[in-house]
């Protein structure tokens, strides 16, 4: 029967989640959740209830079912049923509407697919984000971030929080969102890079989980203008190999945790959690460009790898080394920011062309940019001049290098991009609850 929402509950049972119904076969339970789907077959009503842990089928008679997405409470007896979600259904004894939807949902959540009318899916994100696959992607990302934090803390890192309103860009001033800061020009931070380097002088090993902002006019499936950056910086390194080794261990720890905490989400999305090699393969940028040209006939233009070259290089290592990951190393100075540490020539002098920068590719796309940073003040000032930057705009950053900064390096992982590639999501916008791209400011 249906109980009015205002009726007080007497001797209420503790709430049971749908994932735990197998432990209550034959018992009476109390569920709370949302109307995921409903059917009325005359004298019998079927309600699929969705809570944070999954969905279950509830069956009753004489029920007045509210609109989909209404929040409800169901009390009833658990019964094994081979065709019901999870193998159990609830035979309704009492039904209560907690908060009724006042109009039909703009999208039928059980019928949503990412490849069908994606703009509509994003226009109504306040509702569509409730979908099972949509929230599964966000759950995986939450577990990924938690594993990121946990592992770094076991390696002696300290979490920091850096400004997101800045007076200059971390990478030379390009692609910045300007804002009015009490009558003064300011910008949204495109990276915590300069601050996390400063904090190496405090804690030696630091990390941050925070949004960053890039005013890039991309309209692709792999770019966002606001995304969650997982930033790492560590001091007293020998060279960039120490940084890559750390990321290797970190990724292994993340995947291990995901196998424990998010396997159900991967299963729902038909995705596979990769194994991380004990030593992720490395290849220099010049050799990578040559490889994709010689093996696949793809000629790479520009200073970096283009998307097709990234895909082909990952294909090569998946086939020859069984690795979904590959580090591309020794980037030219022209393709790296001013703070990238130059590599050493054969005689030990700094190279004028090659840096100790690297990218990490995963399943055909770059997910990390990193490397060793310049720590010597004179070398840094020379690099700023070479890049034709204004030293006065970077004084707050360069000042710390007058005071004994150690050799250091780090990297940044785009959380949405990694999540999307892990789950086989074709558009990175679906790996963020409320994405921001060049055309979208709502919801």
From TrEMBL:
Q: Which GO terms describe its cellular component?
A: aminoacyl-tRNA synthetase multienzyme complex; cytosol
Q: Which Gene3D superfamilies does this one have? A: Bira Bifunctional Protein, Domain 2, Nucleic acid-binding proteins
Please provide the record's keywords in A-Z order. Aminoacyl-tRNA synthetase, ATP-binding, Cytoplasm, Ligase, Nucleotide-binding, Protein biosynthesis
Q: Binding residues for L-aspartate, per the UniProt record? A: 171, 214, 369, 373
Q: Does the keyword Glycoprotein apply?
A: no
Chain residue ranges for the region called Aspartate: 193-196
Query: Which reaction equations make up its catalytic activity?
Result: tRNA(Asx) + L-aspartate + ATP = L-aspartyl-tRNA(Asx) + AMP + diphosphate
Biological-process GO terms, alphabetical: aspartyl-tRNA aminoacylation
**PROSITE patterns linked:** AA_TRNA_LIGASE_II
Q: State the compartments where it is located.
A: Cytoplasm
Q: Which residues form the Aminoacyl-transfer RNA synthetases class-II family profile domain?
A: 138-443
Q: Which Pfam families match?
A: tRNA-synt_2, tRNA_anti-codon
Residues under site feature: Important for tRNA non-discrimination: 85
State the EC number(s): 6.1.1.23
Q: Which residues bind ATP?
A: 214-216, 222-224, 366, 414-417
Which one of the record's GO molecular function terms can you name?
A: aspartate-tRNA(Asn) ligase activity
Q: Per its UniProt record, what CDD domains does this chain match?
A: Asp_Lys_Asn_RS_N, AsxRS_core
Q: Which HAMAP family does the UniProt record give?
A: Asp_tRNA_synth_type2 (MF_02075)
Q: Which family does it belong to?
A: Belongs to the class-II aminoacyl-tRNA synthetase family. Type 2 subfamily.
What is its quaternary makeup?
Homodimer.
Q: What does this protein do?
A: Aspartyl-tRNA synthetase with relaxed tRNA specificity since it is able to aspartylate not only its cognate tRNA(Asp) but also tRNA(Asn). Reaction proceeds in two steps: L-aspartate is first activated by ATP to form Asp-AMP and then transferred to the acceptor end of tRNA(Asp/Asn).
Q: What is this protein called?
A: Aspartate--tRNA(Asp/Asn) ligase
Provide the species name.
Deinococcus grandis
Q: What is the lineage of its organism?
A: Bacteria, Thermotogati, Deinococcota, Deinococci, Deinococcales
């Amino acid at each position: 029967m249906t109980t009015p929402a205002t009726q007080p509950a007497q001797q209420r049972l503790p709430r049971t989640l749908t994932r735990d119904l197998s432990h209550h076969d034959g018992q009476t339970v109390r569920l709370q959740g949302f109307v995921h789907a409903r059917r009325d077959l005359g004298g019998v009503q079927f309600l699929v209830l969705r809570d944070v842990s999954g969905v279950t089928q509830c069956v009753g008679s004489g029920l007045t079912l509210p609109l989909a997405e209404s929040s409800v409470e169901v009390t009833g007896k658990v019964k094994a049923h081979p065709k019901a979600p999870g193998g159990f259904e609830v035979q309704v004894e009492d039904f209560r509407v907690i908060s009724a939807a006042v109009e039909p949902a703009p999208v039928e959540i059980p019928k949503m697919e990412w490849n069908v009318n994606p703009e509509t899916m994003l226009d109504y994100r306040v509702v569509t984000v409730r979908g099972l696959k949509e929230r599964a992607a966000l759950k995986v990302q939450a577990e990924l971030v938690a594993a990121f934090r946990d592992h770094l803390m076991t390696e002696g890192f300290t979490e920091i929080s850096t400004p997101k309103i800045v007076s200059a860009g971390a990478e030379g001033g390009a692609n910045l969102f300007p804002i009015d800061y009490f009558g003064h020009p300011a910008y949204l931070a495109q990276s915590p890079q300069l601050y996390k380097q400063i904090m190496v002088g405090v804690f030696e090993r630091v990390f941050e989980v925070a949004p960053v902002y890039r005013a890039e006019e991309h309209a692709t499936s792999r770019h966002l203008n606001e995304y969650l950056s997982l930033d790492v910086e560590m001091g007293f390194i020998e060279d960039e190999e120490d940084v890559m080794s750390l990321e290797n261990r970190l990724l292994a720890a993340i995947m291990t945790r995901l196998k424990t905490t998010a396997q159900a989400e991967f299963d729902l999305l038909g995705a596979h959690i990769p194994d991380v090699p004990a030593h992720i393969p490395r290849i220099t940028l010049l050799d990578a460009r040559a490889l994709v040209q010689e093996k696949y006939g793809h000629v790479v233009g520009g200073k970096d790898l283009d998307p097709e070259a990234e895909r082909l290089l990952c294909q090569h290592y998946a086939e020859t080394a069984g690795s979904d990951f590959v580090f591309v190393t020794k980037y030219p100075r022209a393709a790296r920011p001013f703070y990238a540490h130059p590599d050493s020539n054969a005689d030990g002098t700094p190279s004028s062309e090659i840096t100790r920068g690297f990218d990490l590719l995963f399943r055909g796309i770059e997910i990390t940019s990193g490397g060793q940073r310049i720590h010597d003040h004179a070398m840094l000032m020379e690099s700023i001049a070479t890049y034709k930057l204004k030293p006065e705009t970077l004084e707050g950053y360069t000042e710390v290098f007058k005071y004994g900064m150690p050799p250091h390096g780090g990297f940044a992982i785009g959380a949405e991009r990694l999540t999307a590639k892990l789950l086989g999501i074709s558009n990175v916008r679906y790996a963020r609850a409320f994405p921001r791209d060049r055309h979208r400011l709502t919801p």
